[in-house]
Amino acid sequence: MLLDARQPDAIAAAAARLAAGELLALPTETVYGLGARADDDAAVAKIFAAKGRPADHPLIVHVADAADAELFAAELPPVARRLMAAFWPGPLTVIVPRKPGVGAAAAGGQDTIGLRCPAHPVARDLLIAARALGVAGVAAPSANRFGRVSPTQARHVVDEFEPGLWVLDGGDCEVGIESSIVDCSRAHPVLLRPGVLTPEEIAAAAGEPLRAPDAQAPRASGTLVAHYAPRAVVRLYDTEALRQALAESGSGGRLAGGLAVYSRSVEPPQGVLSRRMPAEARAAAHELFAVLRELDGAGAAEIWIELPPLDAAWDGVRDRLSRAAAAFVGL
Ligand code: TXA
Ligand code: MG
Protein backbone atom coordinates (compact mmCIF):
# COMPACT_ATOMS: atom_id res chain seq x y z
CA MET A 1 0.00 0.00 0.00
CA LEU A 2 1.43 3.37 -1.06
CA LEU A 3 1.24 6.21 1.44
CA ASP A 4 2.09 9.67 0.06
CA ALA A 5 4.37 11.32 2.65
CA ARG A 6 2.98 14.74 1.69
CA GLN A 7 -0.51 13.82 2.96
CA PRO A 8 -1.16 15.52 6.31
CA ASP A 9 -1.42 12.41 8.51
CA ALA A 10 0.96 10.14 6.61
CA ILE A 11 4.00 10.53 8.89
CA ALA A 12 1.94 10.05 12.05
CA ALA A 13 0.24 6.95 10.62
CA ALA A 14 3.59 5.51 9.49
CA ALA A 15 5.18 6.19 12.90
CA ALA A 16 2.26 4.48 14.64
CA ARG A 17 2.74 1.49 12.38
CA LEU A 18 6.39 1.23 13.43
CA ALA A 19 5.50 1.70 17.09
CA ALA A 20 3.05 -1.21 16.77
CA GLY A 21 5.90 -3.47 15.66
CA GLU A 22 4.84 -3.64 11.99
CA LEU A 23 6.98 -3.35 8.88
CA LEU A 24 7.12 -0.07 6.98
CA ALA A 25 9.11 0.74 3.84
CA LEU A 26 10.54 4.24 4.10
CA PRO A 27 12.45 6.62 1.84
CA THR A 28 16.00 7.64 2.68
CA GLU A 29 18.36 9.81 0.63
CA THR A 30 20.30 6.69 -0.43
CA VAL A 31 17.72 3.96 -1.19
CA TYR A 32 14.36 2.88 0.24
CA GLY A 33 14.61 0.85 3.45
CA LEU A 34 12.42 -1.94 4.80
CA GLY A 35 11.98 -0.77 8.38
CA ALA A 36 10.92 -2.11 11.74
CA ARG A 37 11.56 -0.82 15.26
CA ALA A 38 15.11 -1.84 16.16
CA ASP A 39 14.37 -2.18 19.88
CA ASP A 40 11.93 -5.06 19.26
CA ASP A 41 13.49 -8.34 18.11
CA ALA A 42 10.11 -9.78 17.01
CA ALA A 43 9.48 -6.75 14.77
CA VAL A 44 12.98 -7.06 13.31
CA ALA A 45 12.41 -10.76 12.58
CA LYS A 46 9.68 -9.68 10.12
CA ILE A 47 12.31 -7.87 8.05
CA PHE A 48 14.44 -10.99 7.65
CA ALA A 49 11.36 -13.04 6.74
CA ALA A 50 10.06 -10.54 4.15
CA LYS A 51 13.47 -10.04 2.53
CA GLY A 52 14.49 -13.66 2.55
CA ARG A 53 17.72 -12.51 4.21
CA PRO A 54 19.73 -14.88 6.43
CA ALA A 55 19.14 -13.94 10.10
CA ASP A 56 22.85 -13.56 10.84
CA HIS A 57 23.28 -10.71 8.33
CA PRO A 58 23.23 -7.51 10.39
CA LEU A 59 20.98 -4.56 9.52
CA ILE A 60 21.61 -0.82 9.79
CA VAL A 61 19.75 0.99 12.58
CA HIS A 62 18.50 4.46 11.66
CA VAL A 63 18.35 7.06 14.41
CA ALA A 64 16.78 10.54 14.59
CA ASP A 65 20.01 12.23 15.68
CA ALA A 66 23.52 11.62 16.99
CA ALA A 67 22.33 11.64 20.62
CA ASP A 68 20.10 8.63 19.89
CA ALA A 69 23.13 6.66 18.72
CA GLU A 70 23.89 6.29 22.45
CA LEU A 71 20.72 4.20 22.83
CA PHE A 72 22.36 1.39 20.82
CA ALA A 73 26.10 1.98 21.22
CA ALA A 74 28.08 0.66 24.19
CA GLU A 75 30.55 3.41 23.36
CA LEU A 76 31.17 5.82 20.52
CA PRO A 77 34.89 5.66 19.65
CA PRO A 78 36.41 9.09 18.84
CA VAL A 79 36.72 8.23 15.15
CA ALA A 80 32.99 7.39 15.01
CA ARG A 81 32.15 10.69 16.70
CA ARG A 82 34.26 12.59 14.17
CA LEU A 83 32.57 10.85 11.23
CA MET A 84 29.10 11.40 12.69
CA ALA A 85 29.86 15.10 13.24
CA ALA A 86 31.10 15.44 9.66
CA PHE A 87 28.49 13.44 7.74
CA TRP A 88 25.29 13.09 9.80
CA PRO A 89 22.61 13.44 8.78
CA GLY A 90 23.78 11.79 5.58
CA PRO A 91 24.88 8.70 3.63
CA LEU A 92 27.38 7.30 6.14
CA THR A 93 26.98 4.29 8.47
CA VAL A 94 29.31 3.71 11.42
CA ILE A 95 29.84 0.27 12.96
CA VAL A 96 30.40 0.62 16.71
CA PRO A 97 30.33 -1.66 19.78
CA ARG A 98 26.72 -2.59 20.62
CA LYS A 99 25.10 -1.97 23.99
CA PRO A 100 24.42 -5.43 25.46
CA GLY A 101 20.73 -6.37 25.47
CA VAL A 102 19.70 -3.83 22.80
CA GLY A 103 19.19 -4.44 19.09
CA ALA A 104 20.47 -8.03 19.12
CA ALA A 105 18.23 -9.17 16.22
CA ALA A 106 19.01 -6.03 14.19
CA ALA A 107 22.72 -6.68 14.71
CA GLY A 108 22.34 -10.26 13.50
CA GLY A 109 23.73 -11.39 16.84
CA GLN A 110 27.02 -9.48 16.46
CA ASP A 111 28.41 -7.47 19.36
CA THR A 112 28.67 -4.42 17.10
CA ILE A 113 25.89 -2.36 15.51
CA GLY A 114 25.61 -0.27 12.34
CA LEU A 115 24.13 3.19 12.93
CA ARG A 116 23.06 5.88 10.49
CA CYS A 117 21.15 9.15 10.74
CA PRO A 118 19.54 9.66 7.30
CA ALA A 119 19.19 13.10 5.70
CA HIS A 120 15.93 12.57 3.77
CA PRO A 121 13.40 14.98 5.30
CA VAL A 122 10.66 12.32 5.31
CA ALA A 123 12.94 9.81 7.07
CA ARG A 124 13.90 12.43 9.63
CA ASP A 125 10.30 13.46 10.32
CA LEU A 126 9.33 9.79 10.59
CA LEU A 127 12.18 8.95 13.00
CA ILE A 128 11.31 11.94 15.18
CA ALA A 129 7.60 11.04 15.22
CA ALA A 130 8.37 7.37 15.97
CA ARG A 131 10.79 8.41 18.72
CA ALA A 132 7.98 10.38 20.37
CA LEU A 133 6.04 7.10 20.44
CA GLY A 134 8.93 5.33 22.19
CA VAL A 135 10.70 3.86 19.14
CA ALA A 136 14.46 4.09 19.84
CA GLY A 137 15.55 3.54 16.23
CA VAL A 138 14.47 1.87 13.01
CA ALA A 139 16.34 -1.12 11.59
CA ALA A 140 16.16 -0.99 7.81
CA PRO A 141 18.05 -2.85 5.12
CA SER A 142 17.46 -1.85 1.51
CA ALA A 143 13.84 -2.69 0.62
CA ASN A 144 14.57 -5.34 -1.99
CA ARG A 145 14.51 -9.11 -1.84
CA PHE A 146 17.89 -10.55 -0.82
CA GLY A 147 20.50 -10.19 -3.57
CA ARG A 148 18.34 -8.07 -5.89
CA VAL A 149 18.69 -4.46 -7.06
CA SER A 150 18.06 -1.84 -4.33
CA PRO A 151 14.97 0.37 -4.75
CA THR A 152 15.25 4.12 -5.33
CA GLN A 153 11.54 4.78 -5.93
CA ALA A 154 8.47 3.76 -3.91
CA ARG A 155 7.16 1.94 -6.99
CA HIS A 156 10.23 -0.35 -6.98
CA VAL A 157 9.37 -1.46 -3.43
CA VAL A 158 5.71 -2.07 -4.25
CA ASP A 159 6.80 -4.25 -7.18
CA GLU A 160 9.00 -6.39 -4.92
CA PHE A 161 6.81 -7.28 -1.91
CA GLU A 162 3.32 -8.45 -0.91
CA PRO A 163 0.58 -5.86 -1.52
CA GLY A 164 -0.08 -5.53 2.24
CA LEU A 165 3.28 -3.82 2.87
CA TRP A 166 2.98 -0.13 3.73
CA VAL A 167 5.33 1.96 1.60
CA LEU A 168 5.85 5.58 2.60
CA ASP A 169 6.42 7.42 -0.68
CA GLY A 170 8.99 10.21 -0.38
CA GLY A 171 9.82 10.46 -4.09
CA ASP A 172 13.07 9.60 -5.85
CA CYS A 173 16.12 8.90 -3.66
CA GLU A 174 18.66 11.64 -4.31
CA VAL A 175 21.90 9.68 -3.70
CA GLY A 176 20.77 6.45 -5.34
CA ILE A 177 23.32 3.96 -3.92
CA GLU A 178 23.60 2.77 -0.31
CA SER A 179 25.55 4.53 2.41
CA SER A 180 29.31 4.26 2.86
CA ILE A 181 29.97 1.89 5.80
CA VAL A 182 32.95 2.49 8.09
CA ASP A 183 33.81 -0.02 10.81
CA CYS A 184 34.86 2.06 13.83
CA SER A 185 34.81 -0.83 16.30
CA ARG A 186 38.47 -1.78 15.94
CA ALA A 187 41.84 -0.05 16.29
CA HIS A 188 41.65 1.62 12.88
CA PRO A 189 38.68 2.66 10.71
CA VAL A 190 37.92 0.24 7.86
CA LEU A 191 35.80 1.07 4.81
CA LEU A 192 33.45 -1.93 4.47
CA ARG A 193 31.31 -0.56 1.65
CA PRO A 194 32.00 2.45 -0.61
CA GLY A 195 29.21 4.94 -1.28
CA VAL A 196 29.14 8.39 -2.82
CA LEU A 197 31.52 9.85 -0.22
CA THR A 198 35.10 9.47 -1.43
CA PRO A 199 37.66 7.61 0.72
CA GLU A 200 39.63 10.88 0.81
CA GLU A 201 36.82 12.92 2.35
CA ILE A 202 36.01 10.17 4.87
CA ALA A 203 39.69 9.84 5.85
CA ALA A 204 39.99 13.62 6.21
CA ALA A 205 37.05 13.68 8.62
CA ALA A 206 38.27 10.56 10.46
CA GLY A 207 41.68 12.14 10.96
CA GLU A 208 43.47 9.01 9.75
CA PRO A 209 43.65 6.89 6.58
CA LEU A 210 41.02 4.20 6.06
CA ARG A 211 42.17 0.58 6.01
CA ALA A 212 40.88 -1.91 3.47
CA PRO A 213 38.86 -4.84 4.89
CA ASP A 214 41.04 -7.78 5.99
CA ALA A 215 40.23 -11.31 7.16
CA GLN A 216 39.08 -9.99 10.57
CA ALA A 217 36.70 -7.41 9.09
CA PRO A 218 33.02 -8.11 9.70
CA ARG A 219 31.04 -9.64 6.89
CA ALA A 220 28.60 -7.31 5.12
CA SER A 221 25.96 -8.79 2.84
CA GLY A 222 26.02 -5.75 0.57
CA THR A 223 29.64 -6.72 0.07
CA LEU A 224 28.97 -10.28 -1.11
CA VAL A 225 30.54 -10.75 -4.52
CA ALA A 226 27.18 -11.57 -6.09
CA HIS A 227 24.62 -8.90 -5.19
CA TYR A 228 22.48 -6.21 -6.80
CA ALA A 229 21.50 -8.66 -9.51
CA PRO A 230 18.94 -7.77 -12.15
CA ARG A 231 17.36 -10.69 -14.01
CA ALA A 232 19.31 -9.85 -17.14
CA VAL A 233 22.94 -10.89 -17.46
CA VAL A 234 25.19 -7.89 -16.79
CA ARG A 235 28.51 -7.62 -18.63
CA LEU A 236 31.06 -4.92 -17.94
CA TYR A 237 33.38 -3.71 -20.70
CA ASP A 238 36.01 -1.04 -20.94
CA THR A 239 35.33 1.51 -23.64
CA GLU A 240 37.21 -0.18 -26.46
CA ALA A 241 35.97 -3.67 -25.60
CA LEU A 242 32.37 -2.42 -25.60
CA ARG A 243 32.82 -0.75 -28.98
CA GLN A 244 34.31 -3.99 -30.30
CA ALA A 245 31.62 -6.24 -28.83
CA LEU A 246 28.89 -4.04 -30.27
CA ALA A 247 30.53 -4.00 -33.67
CA GLU A 248 30.70 -7.79 -33.62
CA SER A 249 27.14 -8.37 -32.43
CA GLY A 250 25.66 -5.72 -34.76
CA SER A 251 22.04 -4.71 -34.55
CA GLY A 252 21.05 -7.78 -36.51
CA GLY A 253 23.22 -10.12 -34.43
CA ARG A 254 22.15 -12.84 -32.04
CA LEU A 255 21.27 -10.33 -29.36
CA ALA A 256 19.03 -8.11 -31.47
CA GLY A 257 16.05 -7.21 -29.33
CA GLY A 258 17.50 -8.79 -26.22
CA LEU A 259 20.43 -6.43 -25.70
CA ALA A 260 20.54 -3.21 -23.69
CA VAL A 261 23.51 -0.85 -23.40
CA TYR A 262 24.39 1.62 -20.63
CA SER A 263 27.38 3.65 -21.68
CA ARG A 264 29.03 7.05 -21.25
CA SER A 265 30.85 7.28 -24.54
CA VAL A 266 29.92 4.48 -26.93
CA GLU A 267 27.08 5.01 -29.36
CA PRO A 268 25.18 1.71 -29.67
CA PRO A 269 23.94 0.55 -33.08
CA GLN A 270 20.48 1.65 -34.14
CA GLY A 271 17.68 -0.41 -32.68
CA VAL A 272 19.59 -1.41 -29.54
CA LEU A 273 17.88 -0.35 -26.33
CA SER A 274 20.25 2.06 -24.60
CA ARG A 275 20.66 4.65 -21.89
CA ARG A 276 23.45 7.23 -21.67
CA MET A 277 25.44 7.04 -18.40
CA PRO A 278 26.01 10.51 -16.94
CA ALA A 279 29.58 11.84 -17.08
CA GLU A 280 29.49 12.76 -13.40
CA ALA A 281 29.72 10.07 -10.67
CA ARG A 282 27.00 11.45 -8.37
CA ALA A 283 24.55 11.72 -11.25
CA ALA A 284 25.35 8.16 -12.31
CA ALA A 285 24.87 6.87 -8.74
CA HIS A 286 21.52 8.67 -8.54
CA GLU A 287 20.07 6.84 -11.53
CA LEU A 288 22.04 3.56 -11.53
CA PHE A 289 19.55 1.19 -9.86
CA ALA A 290 16.53 2.75 -11.59
CA VAL A 291 18.24 2.28 -14.97
CA LEU A 292 19.11 -1.37 -14.19
CA ARG A 293 15.47 -2.00 -13.24
CA GLU A 294 14.20 -0.18 -16.32
CA LEU A 295 16.40 -2.10 -18.76
CA ASP A 296 15.60 -5.34 -16.94
CA GLY A 297 11.88 -4.55 -17.08
CA ALA A 298 12.11 -3.83 -20.80
CA GLY A 299 13.00 -7.49 -21.25
CA ALA A 300 16.72 -7.23 -22.00
CA ALA A 301 18.46 -10.61 -21.84
CA GLU A 302 21.85 -8.94 -21.45
CA ILE A 303 22.87 -5.47 -20.25
CA TRP A 304 26.27 -4.34 -21.50
CA ILE A 305 27.78 -1.58 -19.41
CA GLU A 306 30.81 0.61 -19.99
CA LEU A 307 33.15 0.55 -16.97
CA PRO A 308 33.20 3.88 -15.14
CA PRO A 309 36.41 5.93 -14.84
CA LEU A 310 38.98 4.65 -12.33
CA ASP A 311 39.02 7.68 -10.03
CA ALA A 312 37.78 7.41 -6.43
CA ALA A 313 34.61 9.45 -7.00
CA TRP A 314 33.31 6.44 -8.94
CA ASP A 315 34.21 3.78 -6.31
CA GLY A 316 30.59 3.32 -5.16
CA VAL A 317 29.18 2.98 -8.68
CA ARG A 318 32.02 0.70 -9.80
CA ASP A 319 31.49 -1.50 -6.72
CA ARG A 320 27.73 -1.94 -7.40
CA LEU A 321 28.32 -2.63 -11.09
CA SER A 322 30.96 -5.27 -10.49
CA ARG A 323 28.66 -7.06 -8.03
CA ALA A 324 25.73 -6.92 -10.44
CA ALA A 325 27.98 -8.50 -13.07
CA ALA A 326 29.53 -11.02 -10.66
CA ALA A 327 26.06 -12.36 -9.93
CA PHE A 328 26.06 -13.70 -13.48
CA VAL A 329 29.55 -15.11 -13.35
CA GLY A 330 28.71 -16.90 -10.12
CA LEU A 331 25.58 -18.62 -11.41
O1 TXA B 1 22.01 3.44 2.57
C1 TXA B 1 21.87 2.45 3.26
O2 TXA B 1 22.76 2.04 4.02
C2 TXA B 1 20.54 1.70 3.18
C3 TXA B 1 19.43 2.63 3.66
C4 TXA B 1 18.10 1.96 3.76
O3 TXA B 1 19.80 3.21 4.87
N1 TXA B 1 20.57 0.49 3.92
C5 TXA B 1 21.26 -0.60 3.52
O4 TXA B 1 21.08 -1.69 4.33
O5 TXA B 1 21.95 -0.62 2.55
P1 TXA B 1 21.50 -3.18 3.91
O6 TXA B 1 21.01 -4.04 5.05
O7 TXA B 1 21.04 -3.51 2.57
O8 TXA B 1 23.02 -3.14 4.03
C6 TXA B 1 23.59 -3.00 5.29
C7 TXA B 1 24.99 -3.43 5.27
C8 TXA B 1 25.08 -4.92 5.10
O9 TXA B 1 26.09 -5.19 4.18
C9 TXA B 1 25.43 -5.38 6.50
O10 TXA B 1 26.10 -6.60 6.50
C10 TXA B 1 26.25 -4.22 7.03
O11 TXA B 1 25.59 -3.12 6.53
N2 TXA B 1 26.22 -4.14 8.48
C11 TXA B 1 25.23 -3.73 9.27
N3 TXA B 1 25.54 -3.86 10.57
C12 TXA B 1 26.79 -4.38 10.61
C13 TXA B 1 27.68 -4.78 11.65
N4 TXA B 1 27.35 -4.69 12.93
N5 TXA B 1 28.87 -5.27 11.29
C14 TXA B 1 29.20 -5.37 9.98
N6 TXA B 1 28.41 -5.03 8.96
C15 TXA B 1 27.23 -4.55 9.26
MG1 MG C 1 20.96 -4.18 0.48
UniProtKB/TrEMBL annotation:
It is found in: Cytoplasm. Keywords: ATP-binding, Cytoplasm, Nucleotide-binding, Nucleotidyltransferase, Transferase, tRNA processing. InterPro entries: DHBP_synth_RibB-like_a/b_dom, Sua5-like_dom, Sua5/YwlC_C, Sua5_C, T(6)A37_SUA5, TC-AMP_synthase_SUA5. One of its GO terms (biological process) is tRNA processing. The keyword ATP-binding applies. Its EC number is 2.7.7.87. ATP binds at residues 53, 112, 150, 193, 228. L-threonine binds at residues 30, 62, 116, 140, 142, 179. It catalyses: L-threonine + hydrogencarbonate + ATP = L-threonylcarbamoyladenylate + diphosphate + H2O. Residues 8-197 form the YrdC-like domain. GO terms for molecular function: ATP binding; double-stranded RNA binding; L-threonylcarbamoyladenylate synthase; tRNA binding. It comes from the Bacteria. GO terms for cellular component: cytoplasm. The keyword Nucleotidyltransferase applies. Required for the formation of a threonylcarbamoyl group on adenosine at position 37 (t(6)A37) in tRNAs that read codons beginning with adenine. Belongs to the SUA5 family. This is Threonylcarbamoyl-AMP synthase. It comes from Kinneretia aquatilis.
